[in-house]
Amino acid sequence: MEKQEKNKISVEIYGHTYKMVGLESMGHMRLVASIVDDRMREMNVHNPSLDSTKLAVLTAVNTVHDYLLLKEQLEQLEEELKKLKG
């Protein structure tokens, strides 16, 4: 099996620089970092008294919430598709 080379990139999220390493494209990793940065800044507007750690946790909680809603919607659509094919 061919070993895929990992991409390494430095990104800035909420004023801090992080090194990201992954098999995804650099563009994908930049997009992920940009979305996290945007969401943290959005959370800061609504919760200006939170420090960056609490903002990061709140951002993670909201992101997982959104993920679970999308996963549920996908599962419902897959069930509907099965019924239509059935």
Structure keywords:
86 residues; alpha+beta; two-stranded antiparallel sheet; 2 strands; flat
What does this structure look like?
The chain has one domain (7-85). The protein has 2 helices and 2 strands. It has helices spanning 26-46, 52-85; strands at residues 7-13, 16-22. Helix 1 crosses helix 2 (52-85).
Which stretches are poorly predicted, pLDDT < 50 over at least 5 residues? none
Shape: flat
Which whole number gives the mean pLDDT?
A: 95
Element order, helices and strands?
EEHH
> Could you describe the largest sheet, including whether it forms a barrel?
2 strands, antiparallel
What kind of assembly state do the chains in view correspond to?
Answer: single chain
- Which structural class best describes the helix and strand composition? alpha+beta
